[in-house]
Amino acid sequence: MSTIVVRVKQKQIAQLIAKGKRLDGRGLTDYREIKVEQGIIEKAEGSARVLLGKTEVMVGVKIETGEPFPDTPNEGVLTVNAELVPLASPTFEPGPPDENSIELARVVDRGIRESKAIELDKLCITPGKKVFVIFVDIYVLNHDGNLIDASSLAAMAALLNTKMFNYEIEEGEIKIKPGCTSLPVRRHPVSVTFAKINDRLVVDPWLEEEQVMDARLTITTDDDGNICAVQKGGSGYFTPKQVFEAVQVAKEKAAEIRKKLGW
Amino acid sequence: MSQKTEKLIDKKGLRLDGRKPDELRPIKIEVGVLSNADGSAYIEQGKNKILAAVYGPKELHPKHMALPDRMVLRCRYHMAPFSVQERKSPAPSRREIELSKVIREAIEPAIFVEYYPRTAIDVFVEVLQADGSTRCTSITAASLALADAGVPMRDLVVACSAGKVEDTIVLDLMDAEDKVGSADVPVAYMPNLGVITLLQMDGILTPEEFEKAVNLAIEGCKKIYALQKEALKAKYVSVKEVEE
């Protein structure tokens, strides 16, 4: 375990943050370099790879048909799943999804679902019987901190890259027509994650900062600057003031990222 | 069920169950309800009926999971199959796994984990009937069970939700409001320290509405906190009566 090394560095990281600096040279609200590549898996309907510093996440989107949820018979279904693949970190173990990967998937899912990023009502085939099911599979390839933001960006990039075949409905059956269209995506939720270290908040924590942080806060905002998802994590706490300040920073950072990526 | 066509807030500004926007549901709390557990609590908040039990501090199995400088806190949030309208499979769902994690992280800041190295505390929460905001009600009960077990704590953790229903920010969402409303903000709070230990949100809120909702939830937490302390004292008052 790296806990001893981390504790040695903890003091150094905290002292630097008190001065408004970070171990890797960033300012407290600076993101690492973001690189987005789309359409890298030909067999998936949509795909993307995001590099957030050294954190690397790939997302593939597959579309199938299935039954709608009973409470939304006229809407397609969105399913988000995350795999913390063992090759990504010495701390990831093979096996069924643990609480960390479930939380990651559910936080990404919440941002996309609550902002109504995908027009799910356009994905209905036969109301109450058959709809399109969108599978968003998050694949973490290298863990260097802030998996939530990297995964959210990769999921949105993959959805924006997703192509659906054209079709006609004849007596409830799908008839495929030539050509394809983009998935109806209308919103661009962007999550911004903070780590609280020594009572200060830093944006986009990398792995060493995550290992020494007291608590984590993720705020997802939509194109209008409204909040669509929040998640606190870690065994520490936040004051109400810290939360409200984080909301403002999250709004600004998300707008910057959206502008940079042309969303 | 045609709840969707029903208005969630009537012309007088009252909610489905006749509450005002900033009003809590009726709350009943009892501490020390299970004889086998080291600590336990039962809470009813509206139609929510939730039981929490604490076992520990105790030796941790498997042993290699033990930490040399602190205890390990484990938490399981679970819903009974009969707790909701349609039977819920008893196998833990992804939602329950996430909630177990966030509930654990909400109560952990209150506990002096460094007092009991190499041990574990298990917190079990069983939702017997669910009617919205169960994660908050669970936290309120779980921290009482911990106090009942005599675990040293910085403060009781108390939780309450706020949300937006038909353009109004309301306190303590019940199931119908959670499902049809436009946002849900569960908050856990330690009133003595003035800090938030659980914060989630789904739905859409402007930053101003969000701030209003968080502040309203904190006010709700403070009211429940008084009931929590009362319930904890009540246990010992009744013990005294038996002795006499």
Condensed summary:
Chain A is α+β, with helices and mostly antiparallel strands and 263 residues long. Chain A contains five helices and twelve strands.
Q: Given the helix and strand composition of chain B, which structural class is it?
A: alpha+beta
List the domain count of chain B as a whole number: 1
- Helical percent range of chain B? 25-40%
Task: Name the helicity range of chain A.
Answer: 25-40%
Largest interface: A-B, 35 and 35 residues
- State the distance separating the first and last CA atoms of chain B: 53 Å
Distance between the termini of chain A: 40 Å
Mean pLDDT of chain A: 94
The unreliable regions of chain A are none
Biggest β-sheet strands, sense, barrel of chain B: 5 strands, mixed
Per CATH, the class of chain B reads: Alpha Beta
SS elements, strand count of chain B: 9
Q: Low-confidence parts of chain B lasting 5 or more residues at pLDDT below 50?
A: none
Can you give the mean pLDDT of chain B? 94
- Structural class, from secondary structure content of chain A? alpha+beta
CATH superfamily label of chain B: GHMP Kinase, N-terminal domain
Order of strands across the widest beta sheet of chain B?
1-2-3-5-4
Silhouette of chain B? globular
CATH architecture title of chain B:
2-Layer Sandwich
Please tell me about this protein's structure:
The complex is a heterodimer of chains A (263) and B (244). Chain A contains five helices and twelve strands. With 263 residues, chain A is an alpha+beta fold. In chain A, the strands form three sheets. In chain A, strands 1, 2, 3, 4, 5 and 6 form a six-stranded mixed beta sheet that branches. A four-stranded antiparallel beta sheet of chain A has the order 10-9-11-12, with helices on both faces. In chain A, β9 (190-197) and β10 form a beta hairpin. The longest helix of chain A has 22 residues, at 240-261. Chain A is elongated and about 70 Å long. With 244 residues, chain B is of the alpha+beta class. Chain B has a single domain (27-235), classed as 2-Layer Sandwich (Ribosomal Protein S5, domain 2), CATH 3.30.230.70. Helices cover 30% and strands 30% of the residues of chain B. Chain B has four helices and nine strands. Chain B has helices at 94-107, 134-148, 175-180, 207-243, and strands spanning 27-31, 39-45, 48-59, 72-79, 119-129, 158-165, 168-171, 183-190, 195-205. In chain B, the strands form two sheets. Chain B has a five-stranded mixed beta sheet. Chain B has a four-stranded antiparallel beta sheet with strand order 7-6-8-9. In chain B, a hairpin with a 2-residue loop joins β6 and β7 (168-171). In chain B, α1 (94-107) crosses α2 (134-148). Chain B is globular, with a radius of gyration of 18 Å. Chain B starts with 26 loop residues before the first strand and ends with a helix. The interface between A and B is medium-sized, with 35 and 35 residues.
